[in-house]
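ok trying this again, last paste got cut off
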Amino acid sequence: MTQDLELKNLLPHSDVTTQETKVTTSLGRTFWSHLKRGIQSLYAQTVKHYGLLYSYLIPAGLYACYDVLAYVNLRKFDASTYFLLLQFRLVVTGLLHQCMFNKKLCGIQWIALLIITFGCCIKTASEFYGVRKNTSPPKLAYASLMLQILCSTFAGVYNEVLLKRTLATLNVQNIFMYVDSTLCTLFFIAAGVVESSEDNLTVFSMNVLPLITIMACIGVVTSLFLQCMDSIRKAIASALELVMLPLLSAFFFDLSLTPPLWIAVISVAFGLLRAISATVSLWYFTKSRGSMHSKRNVPKTAIAMMNMGGPSTLNEVGSFLENLFCDPEIIPMGKAQSVVGPWIARRRTPKITEQYAKIGGGSPILKWTNIQGEEMCRQLDSISPQTAPHKHYVFFRYANPQTEASLLQMREDGVERVVAFSQYPQWSCTTTGSSLNQLWREIKRLKMENTFKWSLIDRWNTDAGYIEAVTQRVRLGLEQFAPEDRHKVIIMFSAHSLPMKVVYKGDPYVKEIASTTERVMDKLQIGNSHILAWQSKVGFLPWMGPSTSDVLKGFGKQGQQHVLAVPIAFTSDHIETLYEIDIEYAEEAKEAGILHFKRSPSLNDEPLLLKAMANRVKKHLEEGELHSPQYPLPCPKCTNAMCRTILNPISNYSVKRDRI
């Protein structure tokens, strides 16, 4: 008993050491991943996202409260009751996750959580059977234990929200989290909430330090778990740990297993299987193919997610730029394209490589496209069972996986029906048009004209679900400003610009961007002023304006102090958001005298976007839609014979012009 009390007295102090070790571990991982870029990159990221230091005070403070309450409650409860009641964290986590992510858990998931909780309780009760105290704890102690459970679960789910919905890298967020955790725990010690004595220095003994190091590593791995998956699965994993420990102990130390323990093992195993079958698809991530392959039957409906793409590593930047500048449909250069394009790519590669290095060493667009596609297909399997199973394939124009690889993969998977779903909500001949033209060229080259039946979602700029998703992100962006200043904020929608040569041909991109912008403002129903600006100009020829840079300089001269940048033509983060807006335009805004420049979060894994994508495909399939009403009509000055083609369509199709 004396040893138990000494251990309880050490808990808060060992927690400080654990948090400090976590900080050191996170710093080590950060320095390793940024070795080539040096400490300056880490410093720049830390300064850029310093506001998160305050955001992480919430989960850090809650975790510190949890540790203090554990210290208090272990003195009031016997160990069996304490650990027994603590297992209800699973159900509380489910409730909080459902509320904070607006994602309902199905009945099977709730049953699975309850079964796992039951199994954990059986295991805990069996472990401490016969060790209960004769005196019952006061009712206030149960309230204290419930508060401890709420601190743990709310901190975990809130931590997941920050990890998934903020723009900082995982390592930077870990540093902020554990610095705040150290400060909060030191505060409780300084306030005298927990006891302090010379015996606390024993946490630095060789017997305890290895355990602290292991716990620090667990904390860092937990953040990876929360970012890649969710707090529900984290809770399930902790339940598995609770049962695996006695099983491993029985195996290695020849300890006997009691019947209640076997009941616990079977209950938790059954609950885990139910939870996994309801919530987790087994997938593996393959960069060469760029898609998440689920262990499913032959897909009845394939969704070809078409986008520009981006280099996943710094070594891919050169080939990405060469593919981009050699495409006459995005940057027309005439007969000199095959010579001038590669030359420009080589000249720009060092500079662009440096930019990608500053945003983490590559574009996250492949990651987000896979996340969006996987969740979209999961929802489609539920809301459109008649066209299930669905599977997404990534079709990037200038980066891997490119069109050829994805076509070959679909053929290997036995796909017959494909929806070409443009991830550019607004149509342009330079984006969606170029991707589709490349698709038809590759199909002909590979002699797959009759392999797949095709239909197109070629634009969805006014889709109600998409508008709602963008509107929600704008609301989140406005929340970054002080409440008393939000009415002063100018909402600056920033879209990728277009050469005026393309605009003069009749490309509808500018009109469709403007249409999206106006619908978002109508949906917001606020009195803020807004403007549409254009970014990412390349070269000296005229492009659509006003440029985002010029707009910021103009606002600075006018004395405007509050600007929110909203990336309007992008469905996920990539270099235009993470570098151009977050770094270049943020610096220009500061130089122009704009004191408060923020960016609304990109759509990424916004639940409203994922729901909108699934509903858009469902509607497309249900109505037997072949394309949008505008697709068959070429631009007035179009001279590309490939434009507006559909090979092997699901129904009769013809372009509204004589073939050239």
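PB: full thing came through this time. The CA atoms of residues 489 and 562 lie 5 Å apart.
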